[in-house]
Structure formats: structure tokens, C-alpha cells
Amino acid sequence: MSKIKNIGVLTSGGDAPGMNAAIRAVVRASIYYDLQVTGILRGYEGLISGDFIEMDRKSVANIIQRGGTILKTARSDEFRTKEGRQKAYEQLKARNVDALIVIGGDGTFTGANLFTQEFDFPVVGLPGTIDNDLEGTDFTIGYDTAINTVINAVDKIRDTAESHDRLFIVEVMGRDSGLIALRSGIGVGAEAIMIPEANMGVDGLVTRLENGRKDKASKIIIVAEGDEVGGAFNVGEVLKEKFPAYDIRVSVLGHIQRGGKPSCMDRVLASRLGVAAVEGLLNGQSGEMVGLKNQEFVFTPFDHAIKHIDAKEISSVWLRLVEILSL
Record-annotated residues binding ADP (predicted)? Predict the structure, then answer.
């Protein structure tokens, strides 16, 4: 029989649409199993300072459709230190919290991995990041909403591009991963996609444009912010020199990709994973992220989940698809 009576829940790192749906699922699943739930504000920073709140059914009413996170989020330099993690542990014990559910990405899980190893404290993670770059799940919470936000924005940009015969370079989030750029680029019919994993380079882009149709009314190039060239503005400057006849414009979508109401897919994914996390803790799981692969729940050790998926093999297939469809 599980000794867990009180589960703490926090969100950490960059916010992602669907985090509130995950919090709601954790709280209601905990109540279903007759457990207490303690909300921790501002991620690991709030864990260290003891910024805790009791949560019940009403705490999570009418939040499933809201973006962001009601528990707030923050990055914590102090939690990177053993002394900071010791303070966090003492706060949990003082509040009689027996286990922890953390919602976030690789930074969140890196901290959780150290914490659970140092103090033998039960921790399960939920993959909450728009980048979709964690091992152990087909999709992360927030990714579907983010790529649909990109598609909606680029569809509007294309209206202007076609009206003025312009080439638009659109920068999307993805400092270390090009998965937002890949899927959204396919969805908007981009002429080219530039991502950190593929290393197309400016020369490859120039060749693509030189060999492409000259009679297209508009051209869209999607650039992940972490591409080797250095982002959309750098790409734009090079292309202006190579193609002085083109009317080239740059648009950086930025943090708009993090906001907005979560899609149905993200709400359902977050709800399923939130319940699975609570049940996982009760069944003795710890030091792991719960994900969904091929519609099956999978628990992946933190140190494996944070090894970013190798998108090179994926990107080669997707980029070939872009090349075929951009003719």
C-alpha cells in the first residue's frame, strides 16, 4: 500500500499551453484517490522559499482552456546547487508533502533527477514544453498548440506576401531543436526550412531558391531561431545581397508561440498524462517522466528523457518532403 498522502505539483521553465490542463488532472486525480494536493508557486524557486498553497476541486475549476500556468513558473539558479535542493527538501518535509509532480522540459527534469537521487524522494515528471524535444513521448504538452499558432500566423503572412510578390522569412522558436519549424513548415507549404539539425546553410538555401519556380507570387522560408546562420534577420541580409530583385521581409513570431488557449489535442494529452502521473506515483514510479508513445503510457528515466531526440534522421525525411512539395 502506498505511503503517499500528499502530492505536490509545480510547473517550471518555459510555460506551455496545456500546463493548466495538466495541473487540473493532477489535482482531480489526487482527490479521486483520496490524497491531499499541494500547489507550489513559481517552480523550484517557490519550492525553496516554501510558497505553497492547498488545492482542491475549486482551485482548478475553469482552467482547462487557459494558456500559461496558474501556478506560475520561474527559473531557479539556487536549485542548481545542492544547498538549494536541501532547502527544497526541508520545505517539502515541513509541509508533509510525500511526493512531487513536476511539469516542464529538460531543465526541469535535470533538476528533478538530481533531487530524487540525493533525497530518495518520489518525483514523476510531465513533458510540458512547446519544443517536443524529449525522449519517451510522441508529443509534449504545448507542442500541438504552438505549431498551430505558427500555421495561423504564417497563413496571414502569406496573404500579404502574395499581394505584394514578397519573400517572407519567418523565424520560429527552437534554439536547440527544429521540430516546430519542421512540422509547421510542412503545414504552411514553405519553400525551405532551416533548422539546427540539418545545417542547410545559406548556400543550400540560395541553390533552392535559384532552382525553384520564378513565377510564384509568394515564397515562405521558415527558420528555427537556433539555425547555424543565426536567425531570420541574418538569413534576410544574405538573401538581399544574393537576390536584390526580391522584396524580402522578415517576421519573428517570438513568444506568441507560447500563448493562447491550448488545442484539444494538448488538453486531452495533458489530462491523460496528469492522471497517469498520480497513478504512477501510487504504484511506486519515481525519477521518471510519463509520456505517451503509440497511445501507450511509458515511464522514461529523467536522465534518458532529457537526452534530446536526434532529429537529424527525422529532419532528412521531412526536409525531403519540403523539397518535393515546394516545386
Answer: 24-28, 158, 189-191, 216-218
Q: How far does the chain reach from its first CA to its final CA, in angstroms?
A: 62
- Give Cα separations from 202 to 153, 194, 205, 225, 229 (angstroms): 24, 9, 5, 15, 7
> For residue range 246-270, what is the model confidence (pLDDT) as tens digits?
888 999 999 999 999 999 999 999 9
206 is in an annotated binding site: no
277 is in an annotated binding site: no
Euclidean distance between CA atoms 7 and 13, whole angstroms: 20
Question: What does 120-148 look like in DSSP terms, one character per residue?
Answer: ---EEEEEB-TT---TT-SS-BTHHHHHH
Residue 174's pLDDT is what? 86
Domain 6-142+262-307 is in which class?
Answer: alpha beta
Annotated catalytic residues are 131
Per the annotation, does 257 bind a ligand?
yes
Instruction: Report whether CATH 3.40.190.170 matches the domain 146-258.
Output: no
